[in-house]
Amino acid sequence: MRKRTISLQRLNIVIAAVFLALALPACGWLKPAADSSKDKVYKDEDLGDIQGTKVYDPETGTYRTVHEVNEDVDTVAWKVLPAEKYPPIKTDSPMTGGTKPPVTGGNTGGGTTGGAGNGTGDISILLPFLANASSSGVPDNSLWALNFYAGARLAYDDLEEDGAKFNVSIMDSEASTSKVNSLLKSGDLPKSDLIIGPYKREIVDMMQAFSKKNKVPLVVPYTAQMGMAEDNPFYIQVNPSLKAHCEAMTKHIRRTYQPENVVLVALDKPEEKARFKYFQDANTLIEKGSTIKKFQELLVPESGSNFQTIDVTKYLKPNKTTVFVVPSWSNQTFIYSLLRQLMTKQSEGEDIVVYGMSMWLDFEQIDFEYYEKLGLHVSSASYVDKNDERVKQFKKKFFNSYGSVPDEEAFLGYDVMLYFGKMLAKHGKDFAKHLDVSPSDVLHGRFEFNPVVLNPEKHKENLKYFDQLENTYVHILKFKYFHLQPAD
Q: How far apart are CA 216 and CA 122, in angstroms?
């Protein structure tokens, strides 16, 4: 059975056409999804990418992130490309290269079986391109996968210029466990020295079991859920978990404020109350001495409440700054009511700072003035510094290649392919052993991979044990001058 791939012939031109075709309707993306039974229910296990608007995706059966368009959509120029000259994306096609040399040169059957790398190897990218969808054109749900691929393709060009020769297979998961299962049986994935993807949770679970059994590094770009892998040193999570976000906020808070002046606030729901532990544990590691000063906690009842009775008065202290940390995003009315009361107290002379979630910026009910006056801080898995010369060069290269500006997925695709391609070229298939000592500043932030032990007490006698590797670097951003920027 021949593997199904996405044709690479003239794919850079096709991607440009797709970007132009899908950019115009993006005006609707500037608003969060309607408040329905599916669109506004965010659970820990549904937490994929921690920032962005979450909407239910009926094609994949999961929640996906919708990002805002960064450019003025009115400036988009339409251009119809003839299909006979620029063929559409399709499956069951060999990778034939295109305007640039074909992506070839690896060793068949697994190019680097360990030890020092030699600049060759087999890489598989497994994402839901949904190329076989029955709808005309490219489905909206595959747009982010195309953006990721577009960035990864540019990274491969840079790797090739440095002498690397990887055999890269682009595989369409079709967001289907049965499709991925057939790929696993086809004999192509087992040859991989590196697998990038997938996205859907149940497919990630399938692939992590495969990577563990076959000792193949699996780089998961989007999933942020903890506990997807157990005793699997080949599972590499790019997106920091919620725990990592809470720990980063705690460290940032404690650099300035004492624990007795910090208040954790959330809805009185098991999943939200459980998040307090991440902050309290991180604070305990910072505290010294025999007496541990904990953060204060405020749980607000949700059932039958209009949230007008929230009272924060007892947590405020004269001549002290009170920090309210709110790891909650499921109920916009709750956040609005809390911030409104904090604004009232601030107008009465109280000094208040708020740490919240970046998803709040997609709320329609809350005026940005609240975030500005309360000094809102949020955590983020990524931050693209538009003044960075490397970012400017990437934007230029991306536009010259595809006729569009790169979005967050394009930056991520470029960073993941470049970083892990270099690691594979340098160290071979065992590159995962070197990740924790190889941090790197990338275009969308920074990679700092560390071993994660899900149950430290169980494995305290084995100091070398870990369950997976995770990028634990999290940005702390502050809402200032009506936009997010680095807090420090």
A: 11
